[in-house]
Amino acid sequence: MMSWQEAADCLARGSATLLSLWGEPGAVHLALWQDGAVRHLAFACPDGRYPSLGRCHPPAIRLERAVRDLDGLDPVGLPDPRPWLDHGPDPASYPFLPAEGAHLHQVPVGPVHAGIIEPGHFRFTCDGETIVRLEQRLGYVHRGVEALMQGLPPDTAARLAGRISGDSTVAYALPFARAAEQASGTEPPPRAVWLRAVMAELERLANHLGDVGAICNDAAFSLMHAHCAVLRERTLRAAAACFGHRLMMDVVVPGGVAQDLPAAGEAILRALIDEVRLRVPPLVRLYDATASLQDRTVGTGIVRPELARQFGAGGFVGRASGRDFDARRMPGYPPYDALAFDVPVLAEGDVNARVWLRIREIGETLGLLGQLLDRLPVGALRTALAGQDGEAVTLAEGFRGDVLIWLRLEKGRVARCHARDPSWFQWPLLEAAIEGNIIADFPLCNKSFNCSYAGHDR
């Protein structure tokens, strides 16, 4: 097995990508993407210490800070020793990094915000209107989900997995179910596998439609927001009609799915596909032809391609900055290996590119939904888990990017679980992207990332 130092060297020179880092009593775990495959490494640290990867690979720093907070494992040499998820008895005492300069001032925003959104604190250092540095403080919605899963049967733990980030319930339930199946030696029925993909693409469609409208709204173009909100609502209603819940919670389960499409389900989904195909192109032309909107999105909040690669940014954040990665294709999982679809990639890395990534992925998702409905197998919906003990690491492509689940089963129950949201590697890039932009453009940049607070904090 690769040693800890060998893993550090691979990350430092860019021959491997960090997928996640987590701990348990007496051991630290590492998941890497290397040579087209996921590699899971575990290292014993009986004295509660291990060499920090963050010394040579900055994307590991926040994960190591979280491991220390949650598991008490000390990363020796960690460049940033401050707590991360643990706010302690006095959250106001958090030592933000100092900034000095004749004309610099600070603007604190959050954790309570003006809208109905999740809590997070943003500390801006500005020179006039120009942002010199942004520092985030997260962890306000840490709920201890992974600890709550311990000792639960997989079916019960799956309900918690689907609630880590509410807008990505399928994106979490799917890799959790696949991990439980792989760990227990269970093969889900083909129809269930294909129905899961239908739900995953519906979730992607609803979120992309909502995001395109919300980004335009933050640029004061509310007309797009209104039209996209209608299409998002149509998608959520179709999901509710077909799977019993607008967000499709508790339908993807270990061993298969909890319910089938109703008799009218295929017709409902095909009508949705036709409506979105009809109504999106005029909205895209409107977006592209509105000069005042383009002035706000083009060239704003650029993520440099080298940063996207170093941080292993997934989803539209990474692909808008040239990182060609989609877990549906690579490493891939059924039924996507039997479907035809493109993975759009752009290089500009700005707000406009992240909008266009979503637009193009909407088109690909409509095509995927059509293929899934055309070839949907008949048969059983669910198989009981085989019951053997084991562990597995799985990836699934959510609308934000790749979601990772590591799961260990013992005596038919969850011994340990780790869930990693794509936002872990996207939040730091938002700090980098906003530098040099004006503070009024932060809401626009922030929405173009649309990172999950709850998925990060879990």
Helices and strands in order:
Blueprint lengths: L3 H10 L3 E8 L2 E8 L2 E8 L4 E3 L9 H11 L2 E3 L27 E6 L11 E7 L2 E8 L7 H5 L4 H8 L7 H16 L5 H29 L3 H22 L8 E2 L2 E2 L7 H25 L1 H7 L7 H6 L4 H5 L8 H5 L18 H24 L15 E8 L4 E9 L2 E8 L6 H8 L7 H8 L3 H5 L1
Parallel strand pairs: 4-5
Antiparallel strand pairs: 1-2, 2-3, 6-7, 7-8, 9-10, 11-12, 12-13
Helix pairs in contact: 4-5, 5-6, 6-7, 6-13, 6-15, 7-8, 8-13, 14-15
Describe this structure as you would to a colleague.
The protein is of the alpha+beta class. The protein folds into 2 domains: 4-76, NADH:ubiquinone oxidoreductase Nqo5 subunit (Beta Polymerase, domain 2, 2-Layer Sandwich), CATH 3.30.460.80; 145-457, Cytochrome-c3 Hydrogenase, chain B. The chain is 42% helix and 17% strand. It contains 16 helices and 13 strands. It has a 3-stranded antiparallel β-sheet. A 3-stranded antiparallel β-sheet has the order 6-7-8. Strands 11-12-13 form a 3-stranded antiparallel β-sheet. A hairpin with a 2-residue loop joins strand 12 and strand 13. Helix 6 (190-218) runs antiparallel to helix 7 and helix 8 runs antiparallel to helix 13. The chain is globular, with a radius of gyration of 22 Å. The chain starts with a helix and ends with a helix. The model has no long low-confidence stretch (mean pLDDT 96).
